[in-house]
Amino acid sequence: xxxxxxxxxxxxxxxxxxxxxxxxxxxxxxxxxxxxxxxxxxxxxxxxxxxxxxxxxxxxxxxxxxxxxxxxxxxxxxxxxxxxxxxxxxxxxxxxxxxxxxxxxxxxxxxxxxxxxxxxxxxxxxxxxxxxxxxxxxxxxxxxxxxxxxxxxxxxxxxxxxxxxxxxxxxxxxxxxxxxxxxxxxxxxxxxxxxxxxxxxxxxxxxxxxxxxxxxxxxxxxxxxxxxxxxxxxxxxxxxxxxxxxxxxxxxxxxxxxxxxxxxxxxxxxxxxxxxxxxxxxxxxxxxxxxxxx
Amino acid sequence: xxxxxxxxxxxxxxxxxxxxxxxxxxxxxxxxxxxxxxxxxxxxxxxxxxxxxxxxxxxxxxxxxxxxxxxxxxxxxxxxxxxxxxxxxxxxxxxxxxxxxxxxxxxxxxxxxxxxxxxxxxxxxxxxxxxxxxxxxxxxxxx
Lengths: 294, 143
Description:
Strand content of chain B: under 5%
CATH superfamily of the largest domain in chain A: Cytochrome c oxidase, subunit III, four-helix bundle
Helix content of chain A: 40-55%
Largest sheet of chain B: none
Number of helices of chain B: 4
Number of strands of chain A: 10
Oligomer: heterodimer
């Protein structure tokens, strides 16, 4: 994103003759080199994310069951109860707000208002940092307390109706009645540390319907790929947010120093990082869709 | 953005904030409703059939609208020249086939895995004694 030189002026609105088309005169498609290349970088990045998300869908389609998002993502800081999807909604709002403050920074840049640019960029950075902190919380809950990792997934769903039994086949009682499970009910196998390794609890179910009716089965982990897909895709997005925050900081400091004011190009650098930042929000729309809503 | 006044631009920003916020809240409330968190007996969002298909399409539609708004108004795509819009958006149509093909493939993997499991659990009856079958037999024993 570095400009070759400060004198590389913004001449979008000037119309040179055709000789100048590729010589730093009239830019093709009325967009400066930097902006155009940012767009094409974002196109390629969109394909990377699309590849990841399509891989998620493909693997999910190949599995008989898949963890239920509103069961998995139900923790909220300082709250003991299950609040399904509330925290990720908060995270989404943080990104929407930071996108809005970014648009304001770009607009103030067009007016060559340095104070406005710096103020709105600062709020954008705060939003990005809040999002990263929220993601750290979400990951901590999953990794530390629910024992999800790239190759272990204690979240699953029952494949048929049944009753919980102990290892000897005796029914587990709950409030005086056998504890029943229904098809598609979610479960989480709690883990405990044993000789420095996490071991998941052993639970058994005797199915009363489906192909396994009458048989007792140990409750297995859910689809293993879930953890890897979740951590890689949200991690890749979080890495984008992190790099965005770093670039925003650099550009905010540059704006404060008066570098972009001297260029007299309507704070184009702010506009370019703005494109990137909106793209990060855009990707979150789809990550939110496939991981939390579907 | 030159042809929009500063006040209009600011209005658009707050309109965008309201729009994206409302769509997100509606999406989440609808998700919780469809999956039985508001009325426990309503679970069409995870019935694995027609109800879930409707639910998923609604969610995808709402997300696509959010994506459209972000690209065209926050990223100013609406104010770029046609050539730029096309060079950015046209390549993404390739993803339509990628989604169809890969999801089909995923379904096949699932079916194959299911078949392997079934075959592994199949109890094979031993051949009736006295009358072996197969190819490596004297001609007189055939039939």
